[in-house]
Every structure is written in structure tokens, then in C-alpha cells.
Amino acid sequence: MRIDTPAGSILCDPWVNPAYFASWFPFPDNSLLDWETLGQVDYLYLSHLHRDHFDAAHLKRFVSKKARVLLPEYPTSELEDELRELGFTDFVKTVSEEVIELDGGLKVMIQALTSPTDGPIGDSSLWVEYDGVRLLNQNDARPTDLSLFASLGHVHAHMLQFSGAIWYPMVYELPQAAKTAFGKQKRDRQFDRTWRYIDDLKASHVFPIAGPPCFLDDELWQFNDIFGDEGNIFPDQSVFMKEYAKVGGTNGVVLLPGSVTEITQDSIETTHPTDVDEFFANKVAHLEEMRERKRPIIAAEKASWRHPEIDVLKEMKRRIEPLLDESIYLAKGVGGPVRFDLVGYDGDSVESIVVDFPGQEVRRYADEKVRYRFRTERALIEHLLFIDEVDWVNSLFLSCRFSAARIGQYNEFVYAFFKCLSEERLQYAEGWYDEHQRATDAEDITLGDWVVQRRCPHLKADLTRFGIVDGDQLTCQLHGWRFDLPSGRCLTGVGHQIRARRAGEPAPDANPEGDAPATAATPA
């Protein structure tokens, strides 16, 4: 998205090239736009480092290095470092949630989210105001609420995510009926979260952006939402408009590559390069044409992945074992061995490697039971090791080029660890969990027949806004986490206990023995 005002232009998250082992492509296709012109901007904003937002090749080739970078306040310098490597030198280092005025009366504010589970160590939203017209580019950030933005004045344009951006449940080795059921639950939660954000901000106009990707490799084609599968988590903008209408939404605006919206405090006018309804009615044909056009790109990427000279076990030991030795919260949170089954070049042979968190070592599989198992091509792991990738979530897992199986609940610590394969990231994540799991959440609220702590144990969402009680279960709609209220046990993942009691029952004595606070979630 490019924002043009008389005081300057801001280019936001220009993603054009395939991401995640050539699995994700932007849809509709934007590669044929006049990027030589579009890249001549005053300001550049990258919300975070996910590769469907941070397109290094495109930034290097097409975006003016004279652009001032609006930099979110993140705990690590990775985003700035990568931009400097691409040739950008002028940075506006924002302070999270503080409005700054740029040249010509253009005002901006960036809200940076810094949990280890927000993007690759950070995600953000951009608020812009010029001459009384306000825009929020929420993108795919998930703030606990939007009250801060609403407090700055009525917002006229709200851009936000509505579609899936994950590998669950498609890659899990489950019966198709179960995948469909889990996928439908996730699809419904995605829309519920979107409606909640829209209702929070009450903007004049809502723009569905930040999704979905399309999958053009024949091996991944089934992930496109073109088969009438109610469990597909990648609904497109046309589906958004239909679902939005069901909940009374009338102010949605769909943009195609090349669409232009002119917005004032009182009016909106949008022009499109082609008819929007007709475009989505012919979605399959557009995808098939894109697939043929992009085949050489996918083939060239695949040819670059094999590195037979790399001893995978040796390199994984060298990279991962020092981090296992330093990890406390993440290692305890994982709580057991994680197995990687690596399929050889012949498509049949398999080498199994275990990351043993309790034993703090990487070794060959020894026929023990594991709670998490991943199966993927050996070449993909070779490539990650070859390029010294520190974030296997923002590469292998988002590619969907693997299958997975697990025993028990979802474990966020598995993915937090494999997102943090550098000392800088690991130390930040360890510190974050240490701080947040020691924090006491003293405020209680009443939901239905239950008194519960106000903040969700997962990522501190305000349960007065996101909490739904059904019988003895509470669901936090921000991320879909569920809790059994009589026991306080989390039903979605390990490591998150909620404080709850039936309304009318006396509150237990707070910390009577001087032990850990009642609300402190233990990681395992």
C-alpha cells in the first residue's frame, strides 16, 4: 500500500517476490505494476520482518534509498540492520505509541508489539494523519485493543488482516474430516477477531488487506481457497465482503493492485484497473495463469536449495546446542524431544534427528517417544543451515512444505524456540517470558457466572473485550485460546493457567504461603 498526501508519500510493506521457499505469492498479482515509479517515495514503512512484508530483493531494486524509513521501536536491531544492508541510511526512530510530526504537517504513530510470538520478534501498526484525515494500517498486527488509536480522533480508513497466515491445520497428519473441522474453527475465529477490531475502531471505511497468499507450486496448489472447502483458512477479499455483510458491514472497500482510493473527512472515491466482482469470479483462471507464468521462478528457487556438502546433524549440533545450554524458559516449556524426519533427495530415505530439550543436545533419533515431529525435505534444512537462518518459523514452517504430528496440546514454546536461533533473539525471548510469567495480574472481572482475571494468561488480551464464556469454558477471541474455568487449565496449549472462581464464591487468600503468585503461569 502507498499513502500519498501533499506532505509526502509512504510506501508500506511492498511484497512482490515469492516468500518462504517460493510457497507464498501475493494475490492478486502485483508484479506487473510500475514499481519504478511507485518506489520513488518520501517514506518507507516495514511493519515487521516476515518475508511476505519485508521483500529484500524488491526493496533493493525498486525503492528509493532516499526514502526516510519509519522504524518501529523493536527490542532488537534486526529490521534496521537488514535495511541498512540494502542501502537505506535515513531512519526516523519512532517511540512506540508516540505521535510524531514530520515535514509539512504529516503526523504518524507506530505501535510496536514486542512479544516473542508477535511476528519474528515484533509486529506493528501505522497510524497516519494529514489535514484531519486519519488512517490506520493495522496490517496483520494483533493489538489487545485499538483504544489508543481511537483516542487520537475518528479514523477514516482502517486497513486490517482478515485471512490466515499460518500452517495450521493443513500440515498436520490428521484425518481430512478433522482438518476440515479445525480449519473451520480457525476460519471463524479469524473473522470474529476482525469484526471485533472493526467494531473497536468504528472507522468510516474498512479495507481488507494483508492476505491471503496464493500457492502456485503444484505441490501446494490444494491450499488455495478455490475448492469450496469450509475449512480453508485462506478466504480472499470477496469472501470477506460476503461475511462482513452477514454481520451488518456496509463500509468495506476491496482494493486490487492498481486501485486508487481518494479519501477526505467526508467522502471516498475508488477507481479500479478492472471490475472487482468480475476479477474474483474468475479467480481460478487468474491463479492458473499466474501458476504458468511463475513456474520458472519456482523451479529456479528449488534448484538452489540442495547443499549436499553440509553435514546436517553436525551443523544442527553446532548451531542449536549452545542455545539449548542457555535456554531456561523455552527449554522447560518445550519439555521433551522434538524430532525432524528429513527426506532425502531420492524421496524415500529418511534421516531422523532429535532436538532433545531436557538433554540439551542434538542427536540421532533413538526410537523414543516424542511429542512433536516434523517431516520435511533434507534440502530445506540444508538451505537454512547454509544461509545461517536464525528463524525457522519465518522460513520453513510458514512455507507449509512439511508435515507435522504432535501428542497433546499446542506448545507455543516449540515455535518460539525455532524462531530464536540466535543468541540475541534467545536472550530477548527468555527475558520476556521471565518478566511476564512472574507478573501478578491482580484485577478480576465477571464474565457470565464466573469471576476471572482480566488479562488472558497467553498474551495479556483484555478479556472484557475478547473473553467469551460458554458453560465452564472461556475462549479468548484474540488468538482463540480456551480455558477450563473450574480447574483453570488451558485447553489450547501448555504453560498458561487462568485464575477463576464461580461468582458468589469467596476469593482465595492471595499468596498465603509466600509462594509464586497465583497468576504466574509455569512454562511446563
Automatic annotation (TrEMBL):
The species this protein belongs to is Asanoa siamensis
Q: Where is the Rieske domain?
A: 451-493
Checking InterPro entries in the record gives: RibonucZ/Hydroxyglut_hydro, Rieske_2Fe-2S, Rieske_2Fe-2S_sf, SCP2_Rv3818
Chain positions covered by the region annotation Disordered = 501-524
Name under which the protein is recorded: Rieske 2Fe-2S iron-sulfur protein
Coiled-coil stretches noted in the UniProt entry, renumbered to this chain: none
Q: Does the keyword Acyltransferase apply?
A: no
Keyword Transport in the entry? The reply is no
Domain of life per record: Bacteria
Report keywords, A-Z.
Answer: 2Fe-2S, Iron, Iron-sulfur, Metal-binding
